Amino acid sequence: MRILLTGANGFIGSHLLAGLQARGHQVVAAVRDPEALRRRFPNATSIACDFNRDSRPKAWLPRLAGIDAVINCAGVLHDRRGQVMSQIHADTPIALFDACVAAGVRKVIQISAVSAVADVPTAYAQTKRRADEHLLSLPLEATVLRPSLIYGPTSYGGMTTLRSLAASPLVVPLVGDGSASFRPMHVDDLVETVDRVLGTDRQAGRILEPVGPDRLSLRDVIGRLRRWLGLRPARFLALPVPLVRVTARIADLFGGGPMGSASLNQLLAGNAGSQPDGRFAAEIGFQPRTMDDALARQPAGTQDLWHARLALLRPAVRAALAALWLLSGILGWFAPPEAWRDLSAMLDRLSMPVALLANAFCALDVVIGLLVLFRWRPALLAAFQVIVVAGYTIVLSLLVPALWLHPFGPLLKNLPILALIAVWAVLERER
């Protein structure tokens, strides 16, 4: 079967791409960055699309030529620069589904969310629900899959947050009493589910909730992940939900992500689904693995522990680097004149305006600090930071070489700062 798959660069999408290809399907990946996908899947066919713009059926009609089925798993957790949730979850999928009707593509699978129901008021859930309902109203063999927590050998977003919490060194913070429930499902079992839906019309016009066999609390999930990472049993710390809401709103100011209000609201809304235990296995024809079985079959390696702990440290690295730039600039503005004495003497001989240059460089430091805080183009900003630090080091080495011998090491400290910038740049790249 020739399948158009959207969202193939994401966590679920990439596993669907690999799994469906292994089962003999021809997959055409519609992604925003085809070149990035080809680097990961050199044998895959990829075409460009943009869910922020392709919100009319005519944009999709040429892409559906020769396609037998469509799987949509594009999604974002919240609005951010260049990504509008209502477009990505609703407007563009609706246009894609309407184009399927016009192009004669009968089979469509929508990867939605277990929370996409009427009584969950989050923007994430309601935009997903709008696309689900439109799809099921069309004359198509359409199936909506609303999975619970999906986990696997790789992680992204919420699952990365759970892994990082499981790796906490002293205590593991929980939202409330940690009773928020899940029915976790391994991503390979979701791939098997999609393949079975593709091969039959029995699920046409239906909503399925792909879930694992166990109902687990947040405390249970984190405990299992901690054991999988080879760490000692956790000491949990229950955090009042109002306090977590405050920290989530602070996170929203700097991009939100898995620690923001959108993630918190989704967690509190529930992720175990509404269908009785055993219903999904009976409908799909196989029993998904328990989380214990799935984790036991894939032991964690050093890279898993590193990833969990580095994900935990990422906010601290970002905050430390931003504070370094911001305080450097602010303290420079308020520094007493004698702090610039050695530099002033040298610049005076070169007929350069000391005060103007000092204020300009202080302003530059503050701007860089703000850009780090708000995660502006990390790759470009990292390169710029390296240039600025190297420039400061070279200029000061020429003007005041004695700084290299200063007991407080003002220039020597630039070496670990360069290393910190490099680590920050790596941690800020999520895909």
Report on the structure:
The longest helix has about 30 residues, at about 300-335. The model has no long low-confidence stretch (mean pLDDT about 90). It is built from 17 helices and 13 strands. With about 425 residues, the chain is an alpha/beta fold. Helix 4 links the parallel strand 4 (about 70) and strand 5 (about 105-110). The protein has helices spanning about 10-20, 35-40, 55-60, 85-105, 125-135, 160-165, 185-200, 220-230, 240-255, 260-270, 280-285, 290-295, 300-335, 340-350, 355-375, 380-400, 415-430, and strands spanning about 1-5, 25-30, 45-50, 70, 105-110, 140-145, 150, 170-175, 180, 185, 205-210, 215, 235-240. Helix 13 (about 300-335) runs antiparallel to helix 15 (about 355-375). The strands form four sheets. A seven-stranded parallel β-sheet has the order 3-2-1-4-5-6-11, with helices on both faces. Strands 7-10 form a two-stranded parallel sheet. A two-stranded parallel ribbon has the order 8-13.
